[in-house]
Amino acid sequence: MLRYRPRLFRWILAILIFLSVAVLFTVGVYRLHFDTDVLNALPQNDPVLVDGRYVFRHHPVQGRIVVDLGQPEGDTERLVAAAGLIERRMRESGLFRRVGLESMGRLLPELLRHTVDHLPLLFSAEELERQVAPLLTLEQVRHTLSEHIQSFRSLEGIGQSALIADDPLDFRNLVLSRLSGLSPSEGATIHRGQLLSPDRMHLLIVAEPVKSGMDTRFARQIALFMEQTAQEITEHYGRESGLALTPVGAYRAALDNEINAKKNIRRAITFSTLAIALLLLVGFPRPLIGLLALLPAFIGTMTAVFVYSLFQPSISLMAVGFGGAIIAFTVDYGLTYLLFLDRPYETRGMDTTREVWSLGFLAMLCTATSFAYLGFSGFPDLAEIGLFAALAVIFTYIFFHLVYPVIFPVMPPAKREPLLPLQRFVNRLTSSRSLGKVYGAVLLGLIMLCFARPEFNVNPDSMNAVTKETLKAEQLIRDIWGDIFSKVYILVEGGDARDLQRKCDRLTVLLNREVEGKRISRFFVPSLIFPGEELAGSNLGDWKRFWSPERRKNLKDMLAAEARLLGFSAEAFDSFPERIAGGQISQAKFDLPEHFAGLLGISGIDSGSHRFFVAALVPGPQYDAGVFFRAFSGIDSARVFDPTFFGERLGSVMMSAFIRMAVIVGGITALLTFIILCDWRLALLALLPTVFAMICTLGTLNLLGEPLGVPVVMVSVVIIGMGVVYSLYFVRSYQRYFQDDHPAMGLVRMSVFLSFATTFLGVAVLALSDNAMLRNAGLGLALGIGYSFLGAVLIVPPLLGRIFIPVTLPDEPFAPGSARHLARVFTRYRHLDGYPRLFARFKIMIDPMFPRLADFVKSPQVIIDIGTGFGVPAAWLLELHPQARLYGIEPNRKRVAVASRVIGTRGRVQAGLAPDLPEFTGRADTVLLLDMIHMLTDDELFLTLKRVREVLTPTGTVIIRATIPSGQGKRSSWLRKIEGTRIKLEGGVSRFRTAKEIVEILSRGRFQILHQEPDSPGREEVWFVAGLRDE
Fold first, then answer.
1. CB under 8 Å to 904, separation ≥6 — which residues?
2. How far apart are CA 851 and CA 542, in angstroms?
3. Do the beta carbons of residue 318 and residue 711 sit within 8 Å?
């Protein structure tokens, strides 16, 4: 019964962990807002892009819904009637705040009256000379008055007599013509309150929804309403009418993005999970063990969602769509662990963790670091992906190495081989025997270098995942009603109506200068019809100067004469001279009426907050985007958006971001690699496949005709961080196992292959996505990861095989402890793991052991080293005595591997623990027990000495260095405390003896003390040199 309790505890622990993660994931999803706005993917640290993003967000069109009603035949009345039905349904739905041109019919008479009454305030000096003066010639006056006579004879003149009397020369039309800048299309006309295209085959309905179209719940309501309305139009007028309803607005993009992202997420996770599961099934002796690699990947990703929600309120759909890829590459860390766990003999979870921790730690660190550094790219979506992925990587790695050893403390031996002979294929693929693979990689890299020219696609529309139907609808609107991206926009923002009016006044003056310089050909600003105090006063002064007494008299006489000839009454235009003189103007000041805001394109009225106006400008022949942006951006808080200049700047920013992030992440990765490997040659070799991958990826994208979009630039740094992982696994495994045919090397190769295959499948499915951003990112990642793996298997193993060939140095004379002696010792540690290499260097430099060791060991032939460690004293003595051979024993298997590599053919080190001795033939003349007898009990030490006596030559010596507690000296007690703590953490007990106790044990073992001395002043170590005692 008791034997089942640990198993029950492990299952209860596993269930609790899974339930806790599920709860955390649910809380994280509940806390997060899923952002569908693609503008958030743009960098926010460049003034041109920031202005463009701000203008785009506050452009009136952005929040409106535009409906094109088209027909194949020119039945205008039917088109207008159908539009009336649509507008009624839109008002009845409650989904729209304003619909169509419902206010224009009501406001136009008032606007006409306002214009006539304030003519002296609406013209600048330049406009008076250019527009008004030509209307004052005799021929033009006669022509204008004749047109008035004709209008009185038709319906057009009804109700116009008062306006004609006050403005007989139609100055008001010059002002009203300025409103053409608000028209979406040149040549568009208004008929019965509806806006018709020039060919009268299309009608435009503009509506303002009560909520933002980016709210996908509200967007679904609008989409349903449009579908039902289109069906009603078809039923009412019949299919033969050909009436077609084409709605366009932000709601469609938001809805398409959400639907597309959800579909691609499901497909990516499903496909990648199934494909990865299939790979794991055929790659492991026990398929279900392989599937366990998926579980921590899911748990790490789900935990990352919760932790991410603690730092960020929202997450983009692109970051969410990246989830499938995250699962794919976080599986990597479990593959190595489970491959070492699933062996043909019994294995233990904690032993497996110790074995693979160092292999995967650097890979995890590089991947997490490169993802984290995406936060410095300037791309908000990229920063979200970076944080999300880095968290998922860290939590997955932690779960594997902290939880799995507890859940699976012991794994029984596997009883069969994997289903497919995958191991043989992988071993052949990653063989280090042939340098031909390296030459092939170099040749491929040089060829691809010729095509590796980055070309960027900077169209923001390419980041939308809209459907073909939506793209077709948007193209129809552009074709019929004009492309908003063909103009330049300036946004003016005011704290209230008066502040906005004041800023528009100043903008009008500046833009008039641009028109004079032919940099702008046409524009509209509310101040052209409703000028503020400063501009109105300036215009009034220009008007009075223009209308000199002589000009007023000439015009009065001309009007009187022509009026009589055409049949007007003598007093018909008596009020006009007074208006010319400006007598009807009581003050050069009036406020901007809020009920005209919608007509003039002013937004923000309903919210009660700031007022916004976006001026649409038509560039002139002398227009220069850069000069114009610098001149206007920031003036009175103005923002400038030139779509062409915006695209050019985005391309430049992307290029600089690409280079900057490649340098930063590449530098960080190189630094981490060097710090952990502590070997510049190995670090450079580990980075070569990444350079190869970047060159080949850029070259392949160019050959495929795929420019670098925003997503590829965003994930390029991930290629650097993840691409180096494969080569690091190879390098670390060679540092650990040294031999190409070591059994563990096959497991590492299999781990690298499965890591590549699972990651590649996870990102390749993104390349098949309908989402443009995910597809672009997936293609870049798939190529980058594929070439990283190819570079790793072609370049790294063959060169590692050459680098790790043991070096045989010729015999040469040198003094003990000389520079040449130390250089030869350090050569034995060349390219090994950083810790033993640095340990050996600092041990020799700091520890006073070595000068005295040379005095105690004279011309040895066979040395026994009990507690060899990393083999530092052994290497030091072997270089000093080329005729000697050394046999060691060491309980730590990692140290055994390092010491065996260091000693090479000059001896052997085996795993074991005193009182056992290493196996060798013959007898030894020197036995070393250096800094280790405090880890043995008295009985173990006595038995060790007894066995040493049996293999020691009659003239041989036993050399012991031991720590003797003295209690004197702060440094001495501190060193001993560190050693005691280390032994305690490893589960042992330290037994520091006095010199007398050590001498007594040696005496009991029939040894006599030949020499005894302290190691150095201030330290507690003491030397004991003993020989066999004659009986």
1. 806, 828
2. 102
3. yes
pLDDT tens per residue across span 110-148: 777 888 888 888 888 888 888 888 888 888 888 888 887
The conformational region for residue 859 under phi > 0 = left, psi -120 to 50 = alpha, else beta, is: left
Strand partners, 886: 863, 907
Residue 274: CB atoms within 10 A of its CB come to 11
Q: What is the DSSP letter of 581?
A: T
Q: Which tens digits make up the pLDDT trace of 378-416?
A: 677 777 878 888 888 888 888 888 888 888 888 888 776
From 677, 750, 683, 669, select the one nearest 716 (Cα to Cα). Answer: 669
Strand partners, 926: 863, 957
Confidence of residue 970 (pLDDT cuts 50, 70, 90): very low
With beta carbons less than 8 A apart as the criterion, state whether 718 and 785 touch. no
Of 995, 988, 992, 1001, give the one whose Cα is nearest residue 1014. Answer: 995
- Which pair of structure tokens corresponds to residue 664? 């930063």
What is d(CA 959, CA 241) in angstroms, rounded to the nearest whole number?
A: 109
Closest of 347, 365, 363, 343 to residue 404, by C-alpha: 347
Fold of 819-1028: Rossmann fold (3.40.50)
DSSP H helical segments within 604-642, as ranges?
625-632
Distance between CA atoms of 343 and 998, rounded to whole angstroms?
Answer: 45
Q: Give residue-wise pLDDT tens across range 26-71.
A: 888 888 877 766 666 666 777 888 887 788 777 766 667 888 888 8
Report whether 399 contacts 330 (CB < 8 A). no
Q: What is the pLDDT of residues 607-627, one digit of tens each?
A: 556 788 888 888 888 888 888
CA distances from 272 to 261, 465, 476, 612 (A): 16, 21, 38, 47
Residues forming a β-bridge with 881: none
Partners of 614 in the β-ladder = 491
- CA-closest candidate to residue 429, choices 797, 741, 730, 722: 797
3-state secondary structure of 618: strand
Q: How many angstroms separate the CA atoms of 735 and 831, rounded?
A: 7
Per-residue pLDDT at 862: 94
Report helix, strand or coil for 1010: strand
Can you give the residue ranges of every domain in the chain? 114-177+540-587, 819-1028
Residues 257/317, Cβ–Cβ less than 8 Å: yes
Neighbours of 628 (CB within 10 A): 20
The answer to whether the beta carbons of residues 755 and 327 sit under 8 Å apart is no
Q: What pLDDT band is residue 1 in, cutting at 50, 70 and 90?
A: very low
- Rounded distance, CA 253 to CA 464, Å? 7
For residue 865, the surrounding DSSP H or E stretch is strand 862-866
Condensed to tens digits (0 to 9), the pLDDT of residues 577-596 reads 777 776 666 555 567 777 77
The model's pLDDT over 303-321, given as tens digits with 9 standing for 90+, comes to 988 998 888 888 876 677 6
pLDDT at 814 over 80: yes
**Cα 968 from chain centroid (whole Å):** 58
